[in-house]
Protein 1
Amino acid sequence: MSLLEVDDLAVHFGGVKAVDGVSFSVEEGEVFAIIGPNGAGKSTIFNLISRIYQPTHGTIRFDGQDITALKAHDIARLGIARTFQNIELFDHSTVLDNLLMGRHTHRATNFVQDILHLPSVRREERAHRRHVEEVIEFLELEAYREKRIEGLPYGVRKVIEIGRALAIGPRLILLDEPASGLSVEETQDVAFWIEDMRRDMGLTVLMVEHDMGLVAQVSDRVLAVANGRPLALGTAAEVQADRHVQAAYLGSPEAAA
Amino acid sequence: MRVVFKKSYDRDIDLHEHWLDRAKIAVLLAVMAALPFLVGNYYLAEAANTLIWALAGMGLMIAVGHTGQVSLGHAAFLAIGAYTDAGLMNAGMPFWIAFPVAGLAAGLFGAVIAIPAVRLSGIYLAIATLAVFVIVEELIIMLEPITGGVGGTMAPSISLMGISFDRYGALANFYWLVLGIVALVTWGYANLMRSPTGRSFLAVRDSEVSARSLGINVTRTKALAFGLSAGVTGLGGALMGHYIGFFNYELFSIFISINLLLVVTIGGLGFIQGAFLGAILITGMPQVIAILRDTVNASTGIDLASLPGIDTMMFSVLLIGFILFEPTGLYGRWLKIRTWFEIFPLARRDMFRRHKTYLKTERMR
C-alpha cells in the first residue's frame, strides 16, 4: 500500500479547472516531485492535500485513511507537514519559537496548566526543546536561534520553513518550491537535506519544484502536470524526454508552425 | 552588553534569563508594595486605579496584541465583571467567590460570542464587538432587578477573613489586594505566553494558513484567546466597580472601550509591559492636564477650564502621533532606546526598519 494515494482529484473554481483528474501515489520513503509550467496546478494539488481547498471530486488517502473529509488542522496530526511557496512564517517571533510552534500537535497540556506553569508544562517544554534543537542542528540554524524572522534573509527563512515542518515530526513532508529564489549553493544544501530526510529520518518527500537540476538529483519519480491535467509520470529523465512535457514547456512545433 | 550563557533549556523556559531581570522585578514589586507608606491617600487611590486599568488592558492585550483580534466592545466585559461581582456580593457571597465567578462569567460570555465573531477579522470584528457592547449596555438597563437599571448599583465593601479591604475605609488594604491580583494575573499571562497555548495565539495572529498546517485549530484558538481576554478584563471590571463604589451603566461607555484600546496601542501591542505603560499614560494624563491647567492659569491667567474637550483632543493627538510615528508603542520605543545604549556606539538608523506592527485590518485574509 502506498503512503499517499491521490485518485482522480479535481478542483474547479467556477469554470476554471485548476486541477482535473490527477491521480498518483507516493510510496513510503520515496522522493516524489511534481513539475509543470506556471499555473499548472502544482501548488493547488498541495493545497488540496493539506485540506486548504475542498476538492470538487476525487479522494486523497494517507496511510490507507481517507483524508478528503478532514479539516486542515487535522492533517498535521496524521504526520503530514508542509512548507509554503511564499514563506508563511510567524514574522514577529524568534526562529526558536517558530520551530516550537511546529510542536503543537505533540502538546499534552491544556491552557489552565499552561497559565499555572505546572511541572508537567516544563517537562513537556524541555522535550519540545530537545526535539527542536535536533532540527536546528540538522539544518545548521544555530546562529539564528534567537533572531526574529522579520530581519532574516530570504534564504534563511526558506530553511526555517523546512525546519518548522520537520519539527512536527512528520512521515510525509510536502515541499512547495524549496529551492525557488535560492542561490546555487543553497539549492545544493536543500538537495543534501532532502537526501538526509529520506535516508536518516525515513521521511517521504513530495515536492513541487521548477529547478530541474534539483528534481533530477533527488527525486525517484516525477509527475508532470499542465493546465491541471497530468502529462507524464516516470523518472526525471523519462519525463524530461516526454514529447507532451516538452510541448507544454516550450510550445509544440505544430502549434508554432 | 550582557551576554547570557545558556547551559540548559531551562534558561530559555524561565521567565527571566538573567538574575538581574529577576531582581528588577523584585525591586519593582517591593516599591509597589511599599507605596502606601510613601504617598498620600490621593495618589494611592490613583495608583490603584492605574493598576486596575493595567489589568483590564492586559485582558485586551491578549486579544489585540497577541492574537490580532481588534475589539471595540471590551467595556461590555468590564460591565459584566463589575455587575456579576457586585450582584453576587449583594446576594451575600464573599468576595473570594464573587470575584473569580465574575471573571469566569465575563470569560464564558466572551468565548461564546467569539465563536461566531472570530470568523471576522480587522475592522469587521471591531464593528461586531461594538454591536455586542451595545447589546450588553441595553441588557444592563433592562435587567433592573439585578443591575439597578439606570439608577445603578452599589459594589459592597470587601472583607476577607475579618479584615476590611474597603476602598475608602482601608485604602492601603484595598491597594494591596489590587496589587496582589494584578501581580498574579501578570504572572499567569507571562506563563501563558511561554507555553504552547501562547505560541498558538501568536501563530494565529501572524499566519492563519500556516497555523492550520501545523495542526492549530484556528477557530478554537481565537475563541479561547477572546474568552481569556474577556475574563481578565472582567476581573478588571469587578475591581473597577469596587474602586468607583456606586456605578451604573454609564461607567462602561464606548469611551472606556476606546480608552482600553489606547492603553494597548500606545503602551505597545504584543508586550505585557505595554498594558502597564499604557495604563499609566491613560490614568496619568488627566492628572497631568489638570496640573498643567492650574499652572497655566496661575502664571498667565488664561483659564483653560473654559475650553472643554482639551483632554479628548490631547488623547486623540497622542494616539494619532503614536500610530504614525511609533506603531510599536511606548514599550517598543523603550526597547529601541535600551538597544541604542546597550550596543553604543554601534546603533544604526535602520536597525528597526523591518519591525512592523501587528495591528492588521482588512489586509488580513
Protein 2
Amino acid sequence: MTAVDTAIDSGVRPSRTRHGARFSEWIALYSMSVLAALVLSAILVEATGGDWRPVVNALLDGSVRHPGRWGETLATAAPLLVVALGTVISSKAGLVNIGQEGQLFVGAAIGTYFGFLIGGPGPINVVLILIIGAAGGGLWAGVAAGLRYWRGVPEVLSTLLLVTVGGQAVAYGLRWEWLLLAPEGSRGNRNQVSEQLATGNRLPRPDLFGNEFPLTVFISVILAAIVAFVLSRTVWGFRLRMLGRNPRAAQRSGVSETRYGATALMLSGAFAGLAGAAMLTGGGFAFGNYQLVPGFSANIGWTGLLVALVAYEKPLAAIPVAVVFAGLRTGSNFVSGTGVESRITDVISGLLVLALLIPAAVMFLRDRRRARAAATERV
Amino acid sequence: MADFFSSVYEIFTTETTYSNGALLAGVLAFAATGEWVAERSGTLNISVEGMLLGGAFTAALGYHVTGSVAVGLLTGMVGGMLIAGVQAEMSHRLAADQFVVGLTLNILVFGLTGFLENEIAPDSTLARKFEIPLLSEIPLVGEALFWQRWPFYILYLLIPFSWWLVYRTRWGLELRSVGENPQSADVSGIDVNKRRRQSIYYAGLTCGLGGAFFLFGHVGPFENTIVGGRGFIAIAAVIFGGWTLRGTLAGCVIFAGALSFRISIQLIGYDINSELLQALPFIVTIAGMAIFAHRVRAPAALARPFIRGLR
C-alpha cells in the first residue's frame, strides 16, 4: 500500500459518492493544484528579488489586454490546436506519437519546397502549400508507421528519434539553393533562410476589433469539431478507439491493426505538417515571417503534444487548453519589460502542465481505492 | 582529395581528437548508463535532457557556494535526483503519462535554469586534470582515457557498478523482471512501480553526475544551452545498444566519435555536412532498430505503464 493510497483512504465513504460531490471534488483538486503551481512560480519570482504582480500584469497585457494581442494569442493557439488534434487521433488508436516537432518542421519544409516549385496564383498556391505540408508531415510519420508495422520498431522510439533527423534534414535543405535556400539577393543577413512567401501567397488575415489573425484560427476550430465528430460518431472512429482500448478484440472483429494504426499515425503526422504549413502561410510575428529558418518549429510541436495530453485526448477540450498555452507564449514577450527574466513563463507553463496532470491521476487512484473498498465491503 | 584524406589521417592520429571524443563520450556514458538501468525496468525516461541540465546547474551552484568540485558533483547528483523524483513520483506513483512528464520536465528545467542563471549567475570552472601514470602513456588513447579531468574516473567505477547492480543482485533481477513482465513480477510480490521509481532515481543520479562532469570537464562556466540535445543522444545510445550495457557504451563512443570528428574536421577547414553528422546518431539508431528488430529485443514492457488489474 502506497502513501497516497493510505492518505486517500481515510474518511472516504465508498460507493455512496454522489455525482455532484464527485464534480466538486474535481473542481477542488484542479483549483488546488493550479493554485499551487502559480504560487510556486510567484515564490520563485519573489525569491530572486522580483515582484510577482507586474509579471502577472505583463502576462495578461501580452496575451489579451494590449491592443492586438489576443489576435496574436489566437494565431499562436491555432497551430498548437492542430498539432494537438493529430495527437488525439494517434493516442485514441493506442499509439504514442511524440515526434510532432519533427513532423511539423518537415511538413512546413516540404510545403515550402513544392509551393515555390509549382507556383500558381495566390489562393491556389496557399491551399497547395497547406495540403502538401500535411502530406509531408504524414510522410514523415509514415516512416515511423512503416518501421512499426513492417519491422516492429516501437513508434515511441522512432518518432522521438526522427525529430532530430527531420530538423537536421531541413537545415540541410536550407543550405542549397536548389532545395530551400533563398537566392543570394533575398537572404538578408542570414545564411540559412528560405525565400519569403509573396504577399499574394499568404493566408488572409481577417481583422476583428483591431485584432488580426490568420484564417488558420477558424480552420483549426473547424478541424477540432470534425475530429471530435469522426472519433465519436463514425464507424471509423469507433474502430480506431477499439484498436486503442483492446487491440486483440479489435483484431478479432476485423479491424486491421496495420491499416488503422498506420493511418492514425500518418494522420497525426499530417496534422502536425498542416500546422507547420499553416504557421508558414499564416505567418505573424511569432512564426518566422513567412519564411523557413532553422528552429522554425519553435517548440510548437512539443507544446501541441502537451496540449493534447493535458486535454485528456478530447478534441474540444483541447481548444481552451491551446489558448491558455498560447497566452503564456505571447504573454512572455511582455514579461521581459518588467525586469524579470522572461523565461519564467517556461517555468510557469511547465509547472502548470504538471499541475493539470495531478487531479486526474489522484482521482483515478481514488476511484480505484473506492472500488476496492466497496468490493471488500460486500464480501 | 588526397589532401583531404591525409588530414583525416592526421585527425585520427592526434591525441587531442581522442581526448575531445572521450570527454563527450564520458558525458553520454554517464547519462546512458542510468538511462539504460531505467529502461531495463520498463520505463522510457525522456527527461534525460532535463536531468543533465539540472545536474549541471546544481553542480555549478554547489561550486559557486563552496568552491569545491567534489561538492559540485554531489549537488549535481542531488539536482539530477530531484528531477528524477518529479518524473518517478508523477509517472510511476500517480500514473501520469511518462512522456508528458518527461517533456514537461525538459522544458521546465530549461526555463528554470535559464531563469536562475540570469538571477544568480553561478560561476564554475574546469576540474583539475589527473594523470594515471604508465597507463596514460598508451599511444593515442592513453591520454584520452587516463589523463583526464578527475571526475571522468568516476565512470570507471560507475559502469562496473551498474552492471553488477543490474545483473548480479536481487534488486537487479527484480528490476529486469519488472521491465519484461510486470504482471508476473507483481504476482510474485515485487512492487512494480517502486522498482521503476528506484530505477529512475538511479538514472537521475547518474545523469546529474553526467551534467556535473560536463560542466567541470568540458564547459567551465554554466550556460543553459550547454546540453543541447545530448540527452536525446544518450537515449539513442541505449536503444542503439539493444538494451545491453556493452552496446550502450559502444553507442556512446561511436556517437561521440562522430560528433567530435565533425568539430575536428571543421577546425582544419573542411565542412563535411554537419547536418548529416548531427543526425547520424539518430539515423544509425533507427536503421539499427529496423535491421536488427527481430534479433535485438527491447524490454517487453518498455514504455508501458503498470497499473494493477489493467492490461
